[in-house]
Amino acid sequence: MTDPDDAHDVDTLDGELVVVGRVTTASNATFVGTVGDVQVVYKPVAGEQPLWDFPDGTLARREVATYRVSQALGWDVVPRTWLRDGPLGPGMVQLWQDADPEQDPVDVVPTTAVPPGWRTVLEGADERGRPVAVVHEDSPALRRMAVLDVLVNNADRKGGHVLPVAGGHRYGVDHGVTFHTEPKLRTVLWGWVGEDLDAQERAGVERVLDGVHGALGDELAALLDGAEVDALVARCERLLASGRFPGPEAASSPVPWPLF
After folding, report:
1. Whole-prediction pTM value?
2. What is the pLDDT of residue 9?
3. Counting CB atoms within 10 angstroms of each CB, which of 20, 60, 156, 162 has the fewest?
4. For the segment 178-207, what is each residue's pLDDT rounded down to a tens digit?
């Protein structure tokens, strides 16, 4: 597939969207498609399952809003994501990413085999009662993804939502349950709780906060309601004031299930 950044402005990539397959493991209707020679993921609004705690028909907009925050951070955490029409109606479209099957930045391993330098999130037992640990790599890419998740209040950062690509880059995908006004952070990336943000991480949060008062704020106002944008501002300010990765706040489990 051609890299669309070489030939297109993807935000106006409005050729015919052709569906070529379906992701059957996804909880909402998710399709693989093409627009010209560009491979994409397509999630029509009509295929979104109702949720008790999020308004119906808003998940696609939340995915795009997360991409906009990712862009403001400046770290390329989320693949290009935009709204457009498709064969099943309007929805979210995102550039397809080929994950490297040889890399597992989030894993479940025996407690005696945690890779050196990796972070343990929780410990438990497998189906045979053997002690295992949920672990993730300690890398700048995953730290930045964790910062993004704090800002957008991501309620579903599963291990399978971390896509490792060649060269050490990691993309985060599946951001439909984000931007709730109440604490909802559920993630497998809890390995840095209580640790200080580094200078680049603080600078990224400051860029988002500044952006909300300018062009980013205008973009988010078209995707979220006012209270949700205000809650984003509050999370940015709280993170900068503490200067540390926060711990769990939500009343429910801080780790998504399933984990992957």
Report:
1. 0.94
2. 54
3. 20
4. 999 999 999 999 999 999 999 999 999 999
Angle, alpha carbons 239-139-121 (nearest 5°): 70
Q: Give the span between the Cα atoms of 67 and 81, in whole angstroms.
A: 6
In this structure, are residues 40 and 34 in contact, taking their beta carbons and an 8 Å threshold?
Answer: yes
Q: What are the residues whose beta carbons fall under 8 Å from the beta carbon of 119, sequence distance 6 or more?
A: 135, 136, 137, 138, 190, 191, 192
The beta-strand segments (E) located in the chain are 17-22, 31-35, 38-44, 81-84, 91-95, 106-110, 119-125, 131-136, 162-164, 170-172
* Chain centroid offset of residue 192 CA: 17
Residue 75 forms beta bridges with which residues?
none
Closest CA to 250 of 172, 150, 161: 150
pLDDT confidence of 51, banded at 50, 70, 90?
very high
- DSSP annotation of 259 reads -
Residues 6+ apart with CB under 8 A from 199: none
Pairing of β 170-172 and β 106-110: unpaired
Q: Is 67 left (phi over 0), alpha (psi -120 to 50) or beta?
A: alpha
Distance CA 146, CA 194 (A): 13
Paired strand residues for 94: 41, 81
pLDDT in tens, 130-165: 999 999 999 999 999 999 999 999 999 999 999 999
Determine contact, residues 129/214, Cβ cutoff 8 Å: no
Which pLDDT band holds residue 232 (cuts at 50, 70, 90)?
A: very high
